[in-house]
Amino acid sequence: MSGTAGAGSSFAAVDAAEIARLEEIARRIRVEVVKAVNHAKGGHLGGPLSAADMLAALYFRVLRIRPDEPRWPDRDRFVLSKGHSSIGLYAAMALRGYFPVEELATFDAAHSRLQGHPDMTRLPGLDMSTGSLGMGISAAMGMALGARLTGRDVRAFVMLGDGECQEGEVWEAAFAAARYGLDNLVAIVDHNKLQQFGWRGDGPDGRVPPEAPGELVAKWTAFGWRVIEADGHDMRDILRAFDEAAAGDGRPVVIIAHTVKGKGVSFMENRYYWHTRILQPDEFATAMADLGEPLPLPAGKGGPR
Ligand SMILES: Cc1ncc(C[n+]2csc(CCOP(=O)(O)OP(=O)(O)O)c2C)c(N)n1
Ligand SMILES: [Mg+2]
Prior knowledge:
By secondary structure, the protein is α/β, with parallel strands linked by helices. The protein has 8 helices and 5 strands, in the order ααβααβαβαβαβα. The chain has a 5-stranded parallel sheet, with helices on both faces. Helix 5 links the parallel strand 2 and strand 3. Helix 1 crosses helix 3 and helix 2 (46-62) packs parallel to helix 3. The longest helix has 25 residues, at 16-40. Magnesium ion binds at residues 161-163, 192, 194-195.
């Protein structure tokens, strides 16, 4: 059994309890992200936090997968093209049962299966090694084409960053996918309007978003893709977008998901410098409280004596 709905099903036809379950999973992903990066004293925060709701929807409702059989040939493929957000993917996979949640504490350690960027040679369940921005979508495009050539009812999903969309290779793949009419390819752009730095200018903290409003929609449309916009932090809207994406019309599909970088942690939201940064102890405590998991009070400060 896949445990998820799969193509052809309605992802959004769920009751309030299922939405609450998925929202709780997204919260747990964020908690595990912050804990693991704090423990590793390294890694990315803003990108995994903006992607958490979509990762929850994918791994717990949309993708047709078998965590206990990670190489199942008929599984849907998922490629995290914005590979620097690996800890978000690992958290989703651990919660879904690919490996123990405790293993997240090894994130970014030298001999861990959970490297700073996804390494498919180490961790079963990863469909692609990524980290060099721009490359993942080409691999996913090949997977979608391969599924068609072998007659498999398989879809390939790929998540990109909006800054990543500046990479030329993204548009080579976009061109080819439309040329081949790959409607079993679904790209998700985590449109958080920030990247690592940006350009000097008038944006938040003197930084300019990667794309002007509407620019991404226009570009993907011009490349022959079917474009669906969604609120990347509204679980119902995310599922609605995946439903629309499932109705193939001969074109590849891109979901432009409007998100907030650093979502869920008050002092990280919309601040580019939390792309990757080490938390101070008081910041870690605030982050955990923001995410609904306040740390126990230290001894002598209202906590145990
Ligand atoms: C080819 C390449 N160039 C530069 C980097 C370094 N880098 C890692 S993340 C990042 C910013 C990515 O921004 P975006 O795609 O918007 O991701 P998000 O906001 O979701 O974190 C950069 C420049 C890289 N990993 N690969
Ligand atoms: Mg971004």
